[in-house]
Amino acid sequence: MGAEVEEVHTDQWSEERRHCASSRPRFIGEDSNMPHSRPPHLYGDLAVLRLLLSRRAENTRPGARTDDHRLAVVIGGGGMRGSYTAGMLRALQRAGLREAIDEVYGASSGAFGAAAFLTGQAEDGAACYPEDLGAREFVDLRRLIRGSPVISMDYLIHDVLERRKPLDWQALCRVPVPLRVVCTDFADWRAYTLTATDPARWRAVVRASGTIPFLAGPPVRIDGRSWIDGSIAEPLAISRAVRGGATHVLALLCRGEDDLHPNPSAGFSVWGKILNWAVPGLGTLSQGSRRYRADLELIANIARTGSPAGPRLLAIAPTRSAGVTGMCSDAVILSNAVEIGGASVTTAIDYVIESDAHERDFRSDPACGGAIW
Question: Which letter, b or e, does each residue of 24-49 get, where b requires 16 or more Cβ atoms within 10 Å of its Cβ?
Fold first, then answer.
């Protein structure tokens, strides 16, 4: 199966994003009658979480829904910052929400996390960050001296995912929820989605989406084309998911408020331009704090001004920063990031459940105006 030909604009500083960047994110659905304020790490429309929870309550399965919605999960990439989203995926799995999802998009580390999640192995997907990926076998800056890639994708694919924490590639071929892995075409620098129907191809696709130029080896050849890290062209496939028919999109972010640049419309930093000149694509990846901020403000703008019939978008960011960098190798920091990511999701779920229960009580209590309902 080849690449899906729909591509996304690679210019992350498009006019639409510039327009949305003029105001910081604001939230909809705030209610003065709620028991406590909305958690600040939630961006957008809580209807997305409510749909997940209602499907869990009804115990529906992909392809046999009782509603007309299509819910997509979008997982961003960010190197070792994927430890945050790995924790989020583990929390979704523990909450029994995997069957409530219709499709998943993942880029870079988000592709590997998505594969583990869809095969029911989110526990291993989270544990591998502090237990396996923090090792020098995976990230070692000293390899620069020898002219070797700093990041060993061989270690990830053939050691971690085959021996230490085996990923069930065969099960990935059979899951009812489609996984669409975002990769960047090395020839035209545009984003495409790749899928697979056999384990060998899945290994190649996941590897391609995480292959950072210079740092993680040469591009990966698939279908006669060369592919590299999906985050270069498209850090978050939110717009792609909506164009693909998703009515509800849950984006899992590997950067929290503390890690975001305050001005997403500022364009590339001087350092980013230098890196792009030295290694095409590397400077783009270095601007993650700006690019994520732009996506969050786009979500907030749609939530604030969109029509009731439009897409419902929600992003969950880490509640706080653990100090993870793209090539972090500190097992303690990575373990903390996993736990923070998990807590970010459980806090969001608890808030929605408590808020809805409080609203039901409020409406049913005549002393609080419930008589009018």
Answer: ebebeeeeeebeeebeebbbbbbbbb
CA distance linking residue 171 with residue 143, whole number of Å = 35
The amino acid that residue 74 corresponds to is: V
Please tell me whether residue 315 adopts helix, strand or coil conformation: strand
Q: What is the pLDDT of residue 364?
A: 67
DSSP state letter for 142: G
What is the distance between the alpha carbons of residues 172 and 193, in angstroms, rounded to a whole number?
16
DSSP secondary structure code for residue 9 in this structure = -
pLDDT at residue 294, rounded to an integer: 66
CB 225 within 8 A of CB 231: no
User: Which amino acid would we find at residue 262?
Assistant: P
Torsion of CA 100, 335, 138, 76, to 10 degrees: 40
How far apart CA 67 and CA 227 sit, in angstroms, is 37
With contact defined as beta carbons under 8 Å apart, do 87 and 324 qualify?
no
The DSSP secondary-structure symbol of 39 reads P
The pLDDT assigned to 153 comes to 96
Averaged in consecutive runs of 10 residues, what is the pLDDT profile of the chain (373 residues)?
A: 46 36 38 66 94 98 96 93 97 98 96 98 98 95 88 96 98 97 92 97 97 88 95 89 96 78 49 48 50 68 66 94 92 97 97 88 61 40
Distance CA 360, CA 373 (A): 11
Please give the structure tokens belonging to residue 274. Answer: 């230098």
Which residue stretches of 119-185 are H helix? 122-128, 153-154, 169-174
Q: In angstroms, how far is CA 284 from the centroid of its own chain?
A: 17
Backbone angles phi, psi at 254, to 5 degrees: -105, 15
Query: Which residue carries 């309550």 as its tokens?
Result: 57
Does an H or E element contain 243, and which? helix 238-243
Cβ neighbours of 170 (radius 10 Å)? 11
Cβ-based neighbours of 63, under 8 Å, separated by 6 or more: 176
How far is residue 87's CA from residue 123's CA, in Å, rounded to a whole number?
8
Look at residue 178 in the predicted model and tell me its pLDDT. 97
Instruction: Please say whether the beta carbons of 73 and 252 come within 8 A.
Output: yes
